[in-house]
Amino acid sequence: MVNIFYLDEDIDVNCRYHCDRHISKMIVESTQILSAVCRLYGQSNEEAPYGIHSNKHPAVLWAAASRSNWLWLHKFTLALNKEFQFRYDKTKDHLSASVCKTLKVPTGLEDVGITERPQAMPEQYRVKGDPVQAYRNYYIGEKQYFAKWKTREVPEWYREGCLTWNQMHPNTPQTMQEKKAMDQKLKMERDEEKKRKRQQREEEKQAKKRKTQ
After folding, report:
1. How far, in Å, CA of 87 to CA of 148, rounded?
2. What are the sequence ranges of the domains in the chain?
3. Is residue 71 classed exposed, middle or buried when 0-12, 13-18 and 19+ CB atoms within 10 A define those classes?
4. Which of 153, 72, 165, 80 is nearest to 125 (CA)?
5. Alpha carbon distance 20, 168 (integer Å)
6. Rounded distance, CA 132 to CA 136, Å?
7. Exposure check for the chain: N or C terminus, fewer CB within 10 A?
8. Are the C-beta atoms of 70 and 106 separated by less than 8 Å?
9. Element holding 25 (H helix, E strand)
10. Dist CA 148 CA 15 (whole Å)
11. What pLDDT tens digit does each residue of the chain (213 aa) get?
């Protein structure tokens, strides 16, 4: 699964707001999205080596909707690469950023300007017409168990947002261990619900069968 975290309208600020774990991860995912669009427009495996990846995902559809979208994502990916070099004291490019630099704008991709940005997240975090607030909500509600900024200041909106969110949702996972425990609990609850529905259907089936005898 891929995504484009739109945490601020300014590209450089947006990159600084990405937590440490997302810096490298989103360079990979953004390059995958860009490459997917290139392949959709007929480029070869040599031209777009990451191939078709999640080509029905809202982020890929957005990047393929306009030349300006594709170019913005390309610029954003390279800005993330600079942030990666700063965070991890690197002089070389991230491997995926090296691939990104070789990608060419797909021939035939129409330019209709920057289109409405997708909000690829659970419905509860979405804000109509405000992808920045939506992705900040998503960070606060879903990423606390791993979000860290070792060489950057923790964003003020994140720090304050977490305080408010955690007062309303005190069981929000704060560690990977807590997240795994919650996921396991949710899985067990879903499995039990599926089992209950199967039993209910079987009972209804048997009851219907008895009536016809």
Report:
1. 12
2. 11-122
3. middle
4. 165
5. 26
6. 6
7. C
8. yes
9. helix 20-40
10. 14
11. 899 999 999 999 999 999 999 999 999 999 999 999 999 999 999 999 997 767 889 999 999 999 999 999 999 999 999 999 999 999 999 999 999 999 999 999 999 999 999 999 999 999 999 999 999 999 999 999 999 999 999 999 999 999 999 999 999 999 999 999 988 988 999 999 999 999 999 888 888 878 776
51's tokens: 């191939």
b/e code 117-132 from CB counts within 10 Å (16+ = b): bbbbbeeebbeeeebb
* Token pair belonging to 192: 């039990």
Residue that the structure tokens 């909106």 belong to:
157
HSE value, Cβ hemisphere, 13 Å, CA-based, for 103: 30
Tokens of 90: 């690197």
